């Protein structure tokens, strides 16, 4: 085990701690770990770099944390047998920057005075680094470089007695987006941030409560969907049943629009809406806004497929597989380095000449971030003989980075932050380019449009309106660099 | 390295040696191994259990053979650097039965008197075991349990001088289906069986010849397609250019129909026909033959997609993703054990309730083999609220096993060999079931129908008409078991 | 990575945290990590289960911790290259009980407010568990189950400003035996417990200071021995040179007698005395006390060799290799389980019949603990034809367990705690059995005998006089078990 | 698995195929594999690079071949359970040149027409490469680069019917030194070359016959020694008992003298003589021939120990451990590269200053090959304060390389082939240097001296008189290099 200690540059840059992740937890089921493994497998699209499960057997906690896919690491019986007990929580992880190292893989665990406590987190704390610095100053020792770990320390240091009070004490100190699942020697706990930016649902299997990032993790095991955990809600399951706490002042829910655009699996129901239907609606709305004359609709696989079907039905143009995906590689957004990302396209996609040759095609994609992939796909279509290539994007231009758990590049690498639509069209080399409008997105979601006073969704990537303070970010910008800090960290 | 020696039962059963594979070779290119790795990656759908590359650097042969995916094993620079040279051949492998062991992974290599010789094989020899027994009786020593190895020994034992003569000597002894690529210290060689059952194409990159199972392996590296290797043709590339030999009496080509139905990648062009277009045509023909009243067409992903698009367009019923596939597992047909195969469906597919609930759906699949997967998919659709489930299959009923390189179960496990269509419908639990007709298949291929005297395709799985003798199979049936042989083998 | 959390039974039993270890540190040398690896290799006899090195490159700390031998893990260039910097500390580890897990392998590291701090420890804290419990109660989070970790937390929580003050604050809270080497981003620090139970020497190479458990670690790299760190001394090396602190009230040094009997390498000089000479003197004294009539002196290899040479010279009986050791296994005392320990003898030793057959032999061993190995060796000698077998032990009967870093069984498994000498003789099956007397040990060390008021050595294993309080042990005996605690720990 | 094909230079040089190895076999015992593993462990000193076991369960052969030590690879129950059956053979391997690759690890196995055949070999064939070339010319395919494999092919190609006749046919073609153990589905076979150069003994455990390179492999499992296999004898064990064949014209036995000097374990009895006693006798004879005035006798550990004890007793000078060996590294002669060999000394040995300082010492070593190690040891003694260093060697000067299974450098790297004794003394830097005389060796063995007409031992390393033709060597010297062959091999 090699480790380098010292805050990596990217943590200082405010980039280092963000994760795009999936969480799962179950209480009271004899096959807790096996079910958690299946649940994480269904959430695999939320993070492919690492996964972990912590189970509690009534006496001891057991933990398995591994780099790689759930199916590769948690499908064998002997691994599950090392995770005995009838309560378990799990996590799949995709870390944005630098190396993912094993000690950062969740769930994290700590021995508190009252007993062990494991926690898994989807989201990102916008004041995590600020709290981390304060804790270290007070003598705390960090075992990871994740923002999640501050929760462990905050709970450990609370002066309250009951676990729930300590947990709420900790929640009151943090800002940002989170869906937590936690496990003590008595309880399963779940919490969603005050705006409900990241999703968390409650299900039930054989009478046992389940928490999961998406409903697809319930479906895989045949569990029943009960309800979404509400924004700002803390739920606790133990022998005595369930308790719900609302420790924050009430706010309107404001979920992240990106769950609908790209994150969630199409068969999930998020916030009561079918993701598949919403994506088809984005495509249909886009067709209404900017359908060109064309012979064929070609989705950029696989994330562009539902929008392309919706576009094709609305525009009454045939839907065809003009791009074939090689299933033996992961999806574009996931590759860890720019270099591999560029190689990726050739390895992942190929043109289906029989569909494309001599045709006017509409390429449908879910989003446009850096644009580097799009450049190659447009060129691949032209190489395969496409007569015209019209590029349509089922989300508005991304002009601002995310700080709530989505891996986005900094502004200067966002294509839409650097160019207007015509500039972007030239960059990707298409004959035309159009995005769905911001209001179009809201309409497709069933709203009349965006409510500028109380936006119904977290949409700062398109609008620049961040829903919470960005404490770490501001600290970084306002303070001189503390070089002495560079030589530390665990 | 553990090895068990002794002919495994399954070899005796005539089941053991068959493989579904992809082959690739390139001559004279400075990046021979890297290009071969990319070519194999494009052929990954033809075999995911193991892969290997042999390169020749002008002095020595270098070999890397690994269990697992091409991308997992051959994507790192250090592996490619261990394969220097400007000629290389490669192989991806899927073995039907028992364990795949490293010594069976191809290309195989032998030191002949005239120099080294490496060979990779897609197909299956129907007299491989018979020849193997004869060779062992004569003092030959086997390093693998593959049928391919007999080619090495036959070439080694030929009394001829020139390599081409020795190679043709060997070809004259074997029967069955094959596409070979071979590499000596001077030549790249390719050969296709007299009926052209298995495919092999010739391409060119930077002036260097390439042999590959499918055109998609040319596309990934931007190579130009030149022509198909003809049935019964042997091609040899060396410093002096290319030579073509036709050592067998001329026969009409009779390619395997399964390449179009299931094997080949949709963006490949096989025998001059776009696989995607043919699959859509299968779907359209099936719609003409048996379209039910329905609300929505749902493909069984991913192999049923093109036929479903063709069916939907012909029948004018909306095409929708009613089943979502989890991309983090391989495809159904590939799983090694029945047990995993059954688990597989839950891990791989999930119902998209938003599409299915309350609807009359048409499920489109490319083939029906054992039917075990179909049972679960139909049930999954009903669980998701489907009002009616109509199952349509874009190939005729499979009544006979294959012996030419396709993994099919023995007759007693083929659903269509045990039941009529109504029996099958009851088995899978659909409201209706229909297959495309055998003549329908030929029509979709552009023929007027099947020519019973000279069938245009190898189609014994549907008709029972095997195109070559089945020597090993007959030997097994006629001879008493030689138990003394069980304790041997390398 | 699998981890089980929850205080293992053996920690509760007071058995779990003890280690027999070697430490090494160097300050200011360009090859710090490579030299540390060589030093640890020379200290390999002090612990073979795991090893670790932490280096500081002026900006970041780098850590490599591995299970297994130093030579297997730290001999390759790429490992050393992952440990850049000109200061480093290292540790070899042998843990007594249960599994050794990676997170327990030292050096341990923590991020303090003032910067990183790594520490390695040889010895055992007799109040480690008591402090650990207090820290957890106050909100500290433990990353390991070692007693060493409490030092990290005590340093982190000190209210003092200067590192040396925080370090001394921490030392004041702990009891027991220790030789520490620590590394901050500015300093190398060493400390020896107030009685000097565990050894620590200061050396110099190319003008750079070195700390090591034994002088053999200086010899391997050609470093010069400067002096022993004194009991109760804290030394600090930084850019400004060296500082020595004596934070404790002065006491007479009282080193562990076991370093001379068994622990230290024979070529080391401990406390100014050659270990080889002392062991020969033990043998000679034993010969004076109890030499039998015999034909040949046979050492139990390898730890009995020097005493046997001394015995043979004093008694004027030929020294012969009557037992041959298989060098491809580790030494008896080291095997992790009783089961392997029993198997071990057959695998490790064999009788040299040519020496033994028909002879009256004296078997010379360094110590007698459980006696299980001795039983087998005596029997092996008789099987090889020995006429008489006289067993001589170059240390007194071990009647009490150690709590200062030596792995000894609990009292009920110590042969000498259960039997008198005649009972032990019967148990091992020898014709006669004798031990060196306690006073004999002191005489061989150059003393007039044991000073009962101020014993010159730590010798509780023979006398029951423990030199410090046994806080954890007493807490265990006096308190009810806290079952709630069982479910905790990191 | 990476493999490079093409005869490596060193095979062409006649250096590549030699091995120093140990063999073991047992017939009819329910724990055949476990006993073989223990036997190989006792033979570990004969080869540490790799080991293998083949077992036969009455129906199938099972093989495990691994790089590394027996104890590391064959001590776990699951490995032994993969080797069921009541007959087994095993091999430990040390290959002289280049990489040891898994396909060269023995036992080798082949499927013959009459059934499987496994073989393990200690020794070296002096016409192995010549036969290999002929076999390849005839169409044979090689799976390894060992000389042993030609035995498999020769047996396979014999036209005789009975196994024993085929085996003897093969023996008649080979020249050189060998001790073979072989296993068929019915028999255990052993064979020793016509001069008995390499040793092979017969033992018995629970009524089951055992073959082993040395008696120490019998002792470890408590087996009874029966007799040595005679030179030129072939023994076969099967259900009907034992048969002994003598297929060669009778010759006087002429065992390799190096087994006594260095190879065999001191507790083994080779050719009826205790190896320990013989080594002591070498030391005593050397003392009679050239004892200097000195204060202390210091063995070069561990191989010089018995000769040093004999020398010390004869010369009446105290025997002391002036050099301490670090047990956590292998022995000098074993290291694979010159570079590591040089580093090795510092890692392996250290001076015991307490013994050496100010003394006139006699260093006793078993042999002097390149002299590079001796240079460092002499220097180490002087650095530790030795007043005089007298070097004594318990074997005569090695002037000629071996071709019978011992790893020796070519002549130009043998110190004694380049220098006279005074030159060697200067090279190693000793105050005096002396070797035992060739006649002294014979006297210590109980002979009156060397019989020049019929030397009683194989001693070409000292005398240049090779006992068999060196066919491969002569072929290499007389023939032009066949470059075409360089590009071949399996």
From TrEMBL, chains A, B, C, D:
<comment type="similarity">
    <text>In the C-terminal section; belongs to the purine/pyrimidine phosphoribosyltransferase family.</text>
</comment>
<dbReference type="Pfam" id="PF00156">
    <property type="entry name" value="Pribosyltran"/>
</dbReference>
<feature type="binding site">
    <location>
        <position position="365"/>
    </location>
    <ligand>
        <name>Mg(2+)</name>
    </ligand>
</feature>
<dbReference type="InterPro" id="IPR035584">
    <property type="entry name" value="PurF_N"/>
</dbReference>
<feature type="binding site">
    <location>
        <position position="366"/>
    </location>
    <ligand>
        <name>Mg(2+)</name>
    </ligand>
</feature>
<dbReference type="Pfam" id="PF13537">
    <property type="entry name" value="GATase_7"/>
</dbReference>
<keyword id="KW-0315">Glutamine amidotransferase</keyword>
<dbReference type="InterPro" id="IPR017932">
    <property type="entry name" value="GATase_2_dom"/>
</dbReference>
<dbReference type="GO" id="GO:0000287">
    <property type="term" value="F:magnesium ion binding"/>
</dbReference>
<keyword id="KW-0808">Transferase</keyword>
<keyword id="KW-0460">Magnesium</keyword>
<dbReference type="GO" id="GO:0009113">
    <property type="term" value="P:purine nucleobase biosynthetic process"/>
</dbReference>
<feature type="domain" description="Glutamine amidotransferase type-2">
    <location>
        <begin position="21"/>
        <end position="240"/>
    </location>
</feature>
<dbReference type="InterPro" id="IPR005854">
    <property type="entry name" value="PurF"/>
</dbReference>
<comment type="pathway">
    <text>Purine metabolism; IMP biosynthesis via de novo pathway; N(1)-(5-phospho-D-ribosyl)glycinamide from 5-phospho-alpha-D-ribose 1-diphosphate: step 1/2.</text>
</comment>
<dbReference type="InterPro" id="IPR000836">
    <property type="entry name" value="PRTase_dom"/>
</dbReference>
<keyword id="KW-0328">Glycosyltransferase</keyword>
<dbReference type="InterPro" id="IPR029057">
    <property type="entry name" value="PRTase-like"/>
</dbReference>
<feature type="active site" description="Nucleophile">
    <location>
        <position position="21"/>
    </location>
</feature>
<dbReference type="InterPro" id="IPR029055">
    <property type="entry name" value="Ntn_hydrolases_N"/>
</dbReference>
<dbReference type="GO" id="GO:0004044">
    <property type="term" value="F:amidophosphoribosyltransferase activity"/>
</dbReference>
<feature type="binding site">
    <location>
        <position position="303"/>
    </location>
    <ligand>
        <name>Mg(2+)</name>
    </ligand>
</feature>
<keyword id="KW-0658">Purine biosynthesis</keyword>
<dbReference type="GO" id="GO:0006189">
    <property type="term" value="P:'de novo' IMP biosynthetic process"/>
</dbReference>
<comment type="function">
    <text>Catalyzes the formation of phosphoribosylamine from phosphoribosylpyrophosphate (PRPP) and glutamine.</text>
</comment>
<protein>
    <recommendedName>
        <fullName>Amidophosphoribosyltransferase</fullName>
        <ecNumber>2.4.2.14</ecNumber>
    </recommendedName>
</protein>
<keyword id="KW-0479">Metal-binding</keyword>
């Amino acid at each position: 085990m090699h480790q380098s200690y010292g805050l990596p540059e990217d943590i200082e840059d405010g980039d280092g701690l963000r994760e795009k992740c999936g969480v799962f937890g179950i209480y009271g089921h004899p096959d807790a770990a096996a079910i958690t493994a299946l649940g994480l497998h269904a959430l695999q699209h939320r993070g492919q770099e690492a996964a972990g499960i912590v189970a509690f057997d009534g006496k001891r906690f057991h933990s398995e944390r591994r780099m790689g896919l759930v199916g590769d690491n948690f499908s064998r019986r002997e691994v599950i047998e090392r995770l005995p007990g009838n309560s378990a929580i799990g996590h799949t992880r995709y870390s944005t920057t630098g190396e993912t190292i094993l000690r950062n893989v969740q769930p994290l665990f700590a021995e508190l005075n009252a007993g062990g406590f494991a926690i898994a987190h989807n989201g990102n704390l916008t004041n995590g680094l600020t709290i981390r610095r304060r804790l270290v100053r007070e003598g705390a020792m960090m075992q990871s470089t994740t923002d999640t770990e501050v929760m462990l320390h905050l709970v450990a240091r609370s002066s309250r007695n009951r676990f729930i009070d300590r947990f709420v004490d900790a929640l009151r100190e943090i800002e940002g987006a989170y869906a937590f699942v936690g496990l003590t020697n008595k309880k399963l706990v779940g919490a969603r941030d005050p705006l409900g930016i990241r999703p968390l649902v409650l299900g039930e299997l054989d009478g046992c409560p389940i928490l999961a990032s998406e409903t697809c993790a319930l479906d895989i095991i045949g569990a029943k969907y009960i309800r979404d955990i509400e924004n700002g809600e803390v739920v606790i399951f133990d022998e005595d049943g369930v308790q719900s706490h609302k420790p924050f002042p009430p706010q309107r829910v404001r979920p992240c629009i990106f769950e609908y655009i790209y994150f969630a699996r199409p068969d999930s129901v998020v916030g009561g809406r079918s993701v598949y239907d919403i994506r088809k609606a984005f495509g249909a709305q886009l067709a209404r806004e900017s359908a060109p004359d064309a012979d064929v609709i070609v989705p950029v696989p696989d994330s562009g497929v539902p929008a392309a079907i919706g576009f094709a039905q609305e525009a009454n143009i045939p839907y065809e597989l003009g791009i074939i995906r090689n299933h033996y590689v992961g999806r574009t957004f996931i590759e860890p380095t720019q270099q591999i990302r560029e190689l990726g396209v050739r390895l992942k996609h190929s043109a289906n000449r029989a569909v494309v040759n001599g045709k006017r095609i509409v390429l449908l994609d879910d989003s446009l971030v850096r644009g580097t992939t799009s450049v190659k796909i447009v060129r691949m279509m032209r190489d395969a003989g496409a007569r015209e290539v019209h590029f349509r994007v089922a989300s508005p231009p991304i002009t601002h980075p995310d700080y709530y758990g989505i891996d986005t590049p900094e502004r200067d690498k966002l294509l839409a932050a650097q160019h207007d639509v015509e500039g972007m069209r030239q960059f990707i080399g298409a004959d035309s380019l159009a995005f769905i409008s911001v209001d179009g997105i809201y309409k497709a979601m069933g709203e009349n449009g965006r409510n500028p006073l109380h936006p119904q969704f977290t949409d700062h990537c398109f609008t620049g309106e961040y829903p919470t303070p960005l404490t770490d970010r501001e600290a970084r910008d306002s303070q001189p660099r503390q070089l002495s800090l560079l030589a530390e960290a665990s």
